[in-house]
Amino acid sequence: MVNRASLDPEARVLYGESLAAPSGYVFDAAVATTYSLDFETALAAPVSLALFAAENRDEILGQPLALLEGAERIADRLAVYCDAGHIQAQTQPQSRLCSLLERMIIEVAAPQGGAFHPKIWVLRFKPQSGAGPSKMRLLVLSRNLTRDRSWDISLCLDGDVTRRVVPLNKPIVDLLKRLPRLTVQPVADEARTLTLDVATDLNRVAWTLPEPFESLSLAVNGIGSEIWSPSACARMGVISPFCDDATLIRLARLSREKPVLVGRSDELAACSPDTLALFERVSVLDEMAASEDGEEAEPESLQGLHAKAFIQEVGWDTVLTVGSGNATQAALANRQVVNNVEVFATLTGKASKVGSVENILGAQGFGRLLCPFVAGEISADAAAVKAAERRLEEARRTLCKAGLALRCERAPAVGEEAPGWRVWLTVSRPLVFASVASAFAWPITRGEGHRCDVLAALAAGADVDLGVMPLADLTRFIAFQLSDADSDARLLFSAGLPMEGVPTERHSAIFRSIITNREAFFRYLRLLLSELGDPFAAALAAQGGAGEGAWGRGGGDDVPLLEDLVRALCSGDGRLAAVDRLITRLAAEDSATDPVPAQFRALWEAFRAAMPAEANHVH
């Protein structure tokens, strides 16, 4: 979080901690934006919002029941907008639980043709007691919703919803209001309403500024006429993993003293030596810092520098701007050139308290993680790789704008194969890919082993049979793998497509695929009955700390569960309705496969009959 030690490498903040509700409050609603995301991180976020904040993402991913309940509780209260075609994919089958994200993840496109690049969270929390004003939180990040171990910067602002409009929030409010109109597929009414509702409350939030800063301003590039860009100053420090010559030259000219630049080796190597000579010092992240003191990173995780910041000395003040924008023309240049959507937050404070550029980026601050950049020629291979990436990116954009859709239909049993559902990829018009050698597609729940060659069909505008699959595997998320015609480069990504003919019982099938036995049922039941705002109880239930008790044996260990049911009845917060929905979803024609013990089912029917009608209402 941004404060005096914001760029101190010792000040580390976990993503989950940033999403946790303030003391005395519980999560109510949120809108997030990201350039890219992966399904695992997106699945972990609802758990952090609704249940408990774990030490790391893997701890949450190891709790499928928590993932299931987190997604259930948050389904209609979280909207995540991401750049179309930048949902990450993998070759292995992904969890069926990813299908529960279909209502939350909404793909959008930048209105001016660039990248939709902002990384923010706008969260609303309500008092646990039910009385008093709501609180809101604004997270301005430099990282995406992905498995990313890069060095990043985040700003966390908390504030109260007041009765008066707060003008400084207008840029973010306008962005939120614009989001439902940027979608590449029709947006659900629920997501549109949620987004606009959060924007309305955000318009009236008074923020508490982090010390020692005295003022705040917010800006959004790429959706309107106003463009944020650094102004003239006594000295400037720039942290930007991506950069280009034109922007670096312009920034250097804004600084009376020679500025300081921190970037990535591959990007700096592509810049002119004359451009870099305009800076007093050009640094990169030390290799040991990039790998977290030498710790070996997982192959799919990103490392290195991903933070973006502009530090300016203006008179007696230090002005610190953080957000999503790099030192590139697409992010910063001017109204005619800017085509990325970016978010910036600028904090201003006295230099004597905040520190100077040298204090922040020097050896006593973030500088102790840096080492000098050593110039070298960019190789022909590196240039060829970048050219191939550009070609594949153009093919990705073509595919995402093509209006692809899915159609599913019931498929009868064939031989020893059980009946299932056949999925068709439907194409509205022929697509032209000038430099694509191959194109494969498969539902993310099935994996590369079920891939289909779709290049010829896409070129002909013909529908593609993606195969027959179990009901629980149906998903609107399709993985695409494109290969470049002039190199060995490949691109793997996912896209969420409209899906026609989805049976209403799919959700129940996903539940039955996760809750397969009595132990899982009772653990999930305790998770359902955990009180809002009680992360300890939720974590204990999800991790198996509460056993199934003595249902079916006539013992007395079932009493705590009965107490939980009674407390839920008295609270009237919808937990009993969730239990009833669970029992309905797990109903199976074959009693031998029903994970719900008969004794509990009988007790529940008696308990439900005694409930007042309003207890079944979900709040």
Report on this structure.
By secondary structure, the protein is an alpha+beta fold. It contains 21 helices and 23 strands. The protein has an 8-stranded mixed sheet. Strand 21 and strand 22 form a beta hairpin. Residues 1-5, 292-301, 545-559 and 614-619 have low confidence and may be disordered.
Keywords:
single chain, 619 residues, alpha+beta, 21 helices, globular
Quick rundown:
This protein has 619 residues and is of the alpha+beta class.
State the distance separating the first and last CA atoms: 33 Å
Percentage of β-strand residues = 15-25%
Sheet bearing the most strands, described? Answer: 8 strands, mixed
- What's the pLDDT, averaged over the residues? 85
Shape: globular
Give the helices and strands, then pairings.
Blueprint: H1 15-19, E1 25-34, H2 39-50, H3 57-61, H4 64-74, E2 78-83, E3 105-108, E4 120-127, E5 135-141, E6 154-161, H5 170-178, H6 189-202, E7 205-208, E8 215-221, E9 235-239, H7 245-254, E10 260-263, H8 265-269, H9 273-276, E11 281-285, H10 287-290, E12 309-314, E13 317-323, H11 329-332, E14 342-350, H12 351-354, H13 357-361, E15 370-372, H14 380-400, E16 405-411, E17 420-426, E18 436-443, E19 452-453, H15 455-460, E20 464-469, E21 477-484, E22 490-496, E23 499-500, H16 506-514, H17 518-529, H18 535-542, H19 559-571, H20 575-586, H21 598-609
Parallel strand pairs: 1-2, 2-3, 9-10, 10-11, 16-23
Antiparallel strand pairs: 1-4, 4-5, 5-6, 6-7, 8-14, 9-12, 11-15, 12-13, 13-14, 16-17, 17-20, 18-19, 18-21, 21-22
Helix pairs in contact: 2-4, 5-6, 16-20, 17-18
